[in-house]
């Protein structure tokens, strides 16, 4: 029986203790994603200064102490966090915002018209989850500093520093994430670079610099500063810190992002094979809502529309996306009606006369690359992740802006307009054939389950399906599976590369049809995530170059035809063993040469080593134990955290253009490992 539950059992978590007790409530998780969220919180404060017109330069620095603790410093030349005593609290305004939740200057829209921070918890949460944090502020010719350990202020008031700054004002924040919270997680320079580059695109004229100094060794201030230290000790520690630095002779790595073209430059980078020279771009403010849009068409079939609200990536869209789609469709149809002579397809011309409309939304979005960025005074997001905008008034504003400006662009740029219209007409022609294609797919579905060997349980959340390379491996997988919840779909040969093949050709590929039929939720525009029959779709291929190629082809298929499957976390790649290491009665399976060598070293050498050339060489018991048993197997979950970078990689490696692929291979050739020869 549990202990007594009385009035004294009720606890109130004071200050930032609640954040330390339940960090995931504030930053989403305590893994790598949560760690990087700390960086975004501080950077977003600087970005808000930029949106307010008070900052044009941000510097982010990654460092590492001699004890291996990583630190992040974010510097801006904004107005600086206010340091004056707060009129209602017995502390400085700086200490208030760094140590109290829901405090800040973004609630009344006087200091910030728009901002990404809505709740006043950002810097305070970072403080709570850091083993040490320091904030320096320059205002009115003075530089003041305060330091904190795990959310607690360790200086009595603010300390004035005798430093020289180039900027007239600004804020410099440095923090060391607390290992008690984040363990050994490290900052990923690529993730940070991608986000900073995105922010530079979204804030034209802003310069953002990233410097990675992590191979340099500096003293760790949290080793020496304690909460009981008095002001003189803190000043002494601070002033001596630079003298004791131990640095390795390494070349600094830095990246500078600055785009005067803003999101127009973003679209130009994303559109790999544009079909028109002129790029539509407009930036308008209606009432209190700013709408900034740029778009282009390329030769691909897919559409890429990236939406942002107050610089927040709304990956699930929302009212601004709906408004953009409606405005675009209306504008292109209006232009087509005025220029009927440009339409060649007789059936489409008939549609103009009968319906006063010719193109569907899907028609005008084929090959589209667009960035839609809105700045909203009071954004309302659906869910805590801020991934979908809910403000109803934004839809009409964006639709009106897009309709008027896109139609104006088409009227003023007839050559580009002709290319866009031809692209839409080609898409509409394919749409007519699409009905026949869908009927063909339905007929294959009506024929039964094909080569699929299904499982017994019917609840999708408990079901798994393995897409297995080859009939031989498929047979072993069928015999070795857990038949209650694991289904097997053997694939014969390589699936078609859907990045190069049009829809009608892809739908003639037997393997593609088998996969669509097995998953049971449709594809592309017809895909319905609620109808997915398995919540684990696992790619199981040989651990050789051919197997890796098939995985790439399948990932391309899911990325283009069922991206929601990836977003929901349903797609995985199995890690079959490369070696079996045996010594006496001890036996272990390993997935890499490094693991093999570690086992040999641990067991003292002279081990019996077996290498598996393919899944077909493994008997059902071995396959069950190493790949299919949930308690032993290793699965890699497929995600698309950085959608834009994923798009670039797929287009580069799987697309039609040879030169970008050659350049990529030449650039990264020396990084390749474990190539089969």
Structure description:
- The chain has 3 domains: 17-257, Heat Shock Protein 90; 263-435, Ribosomal Protein S5, domain 2 (2-Layer Sandwich); 448-577 and 636-644, Rossmann fold (3-Layer(aba) Sandwich).
- Residues 7-12 and 216-252 have low confidence and may be disordered.
- The radius of gyration is 29 Å and the shape is flat.
- Helix 3 (32-51) runs antiparallel to helix 5, helix 11 (319-338) packs parallel to helix 14 (392-412) and helix 16 (471-480) packs across helix 22 (620-628).
- It is an alpha+beta fold and 677 residues long.
Attribute tags:
single chain, 677 residues, alpha+beta, Heat Shock Protein 90, Ribosomal Protein S5, domain 2, Rossmann fold, nine-stranded mixed beta sheet, five-stranded mixed beta sheet, 22 strands, flat
């Amino acid at each position: 029986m549990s202990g007594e539950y009385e009035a004294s059992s009720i606890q109130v978590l004071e200050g930032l203790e609640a954040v330390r007790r339940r960090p995931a409530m504030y930053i989403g998780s305590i893994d790598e994603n949560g760690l990087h969220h700390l960086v975004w919180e501080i950077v977003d404060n600087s970005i808000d200064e930029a949106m307010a017109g008070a900052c044009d330069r941000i510097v982010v620095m990654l460092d590492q102490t001699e004890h291996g603790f990583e630190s992040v410093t974010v510097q801006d030349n904004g107005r600086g966090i206010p340091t004056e005593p707060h009129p209602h609290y017995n502390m400085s305004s700086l200490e208030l915002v760094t140590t109290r939740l829901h405090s800040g200057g973004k609630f009344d829209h006087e200091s910030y018209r728009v901002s990404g921070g809505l709740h006043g918890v950002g810097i305070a949460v970072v403080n709570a989850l850091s083993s040490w944090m320091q904030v320096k502020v320059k205002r009115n010719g003075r530089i003041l500093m305060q330091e904190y350990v795990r959310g607690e202020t360790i200086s009595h008031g603010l300390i004035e520093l005798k430093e020289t700054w180039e900027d007239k004002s600004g804020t410099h924040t440095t923090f060391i994430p607390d290992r008690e919270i984040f363990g050994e997680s490290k900052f990923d320079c690529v993730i940070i670079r991608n986000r900073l580059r995105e922010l530079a695109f979204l804030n034209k004229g802003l310069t953002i610099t990233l410097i990675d100094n992590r191979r340099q060794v500096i003293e760790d201030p949290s080793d020496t500063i304690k909460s009981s230290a008095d002001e003189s000790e803190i000043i002494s520690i601070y002033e001596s810190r630079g003298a004791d630095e131990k640095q390795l002779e390494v070349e600094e790595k830095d990246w500078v992002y600055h785009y005067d073209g803003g999101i127009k430059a973003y679209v130009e980078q994303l559109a790999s094979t544009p079909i028109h020279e002129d790029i539509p771009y407009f930036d308008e403010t209606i009432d209190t809502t700013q709408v900034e849009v740029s778009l282009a068409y390329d030769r691909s079939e897919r559409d890429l529309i990236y939406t942002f609200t107050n610089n927040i990536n709304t990956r699930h869209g929302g009212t601004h996306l709906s408004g953009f789609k409606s405005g675009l469709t209306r504008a292109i149809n209006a232009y087509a009606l005025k220029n009927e002579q440009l339409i060649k397809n007789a059936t489409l011309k008939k549609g103009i006369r009968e319906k006063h409309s010719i193109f569907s939304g899907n028609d005008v979005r084929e090959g589209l690359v667009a960035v839609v960025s809105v700045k909203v005074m009071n954004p309302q997001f659906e869910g805590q992740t801020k991934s979908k905008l809910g403000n109803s008034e934004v839809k009409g504003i964006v639709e009106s802006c897009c309709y008027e400006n896109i139609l104006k662009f088409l009227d003023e740029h007839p050559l580009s307009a002709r290319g866009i219209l031809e692209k839409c007409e080609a898409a509409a022609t394919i749409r007519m054939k699409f009905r026949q294609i869908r009927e063909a797919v339905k007929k294959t579905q009506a024929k039964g389950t094909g080569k699929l060997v299904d499982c017994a349980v019917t609840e999708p959340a408990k079901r798994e399906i393995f897409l297995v390379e080859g009939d031989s491996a498929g047979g072993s997988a069928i015999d070795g599976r857990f038949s209650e919840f694991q289904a097997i779909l053997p694939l014969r040969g390589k699936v078609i590369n859907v990045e190069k093949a049009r829809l009608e050709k892809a739908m003639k590929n037997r393997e593609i049809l088998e996969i669509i039929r097995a998953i049971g939720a449709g594809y592309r525009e017809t895909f319905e995530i609620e109808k997915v029959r398995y919540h684990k779709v696992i790619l199981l291929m040989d651990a050789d170059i051919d197997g890796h190629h098939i995985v790439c082809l399948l990932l391309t298929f899911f990325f283009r035809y069922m991206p929601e499957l990836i977003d929901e976390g349903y797609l995985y790649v199995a890690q079959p063993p490369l070696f079996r290491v045996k010594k006496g009665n001890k036996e272990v399976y390993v997935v890499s040469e490094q693991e093999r060598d570690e086992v040999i070293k641990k067991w003292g050498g002279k081990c019996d080593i077996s290498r598996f050339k393919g899944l077909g060489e493994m008997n059902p018991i071995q396959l069950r134990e190493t790949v299919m048993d949930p308690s032993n197997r290793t699965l890699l979950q497929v995600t698309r955290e950085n959608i834009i970078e994923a798009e670039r990689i797929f287009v580069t490696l799987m697309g039609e253009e040879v030169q970008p692929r050659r350049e990529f291979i030449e650039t990264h050739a020396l990084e390749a490992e474990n190539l089969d020869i």
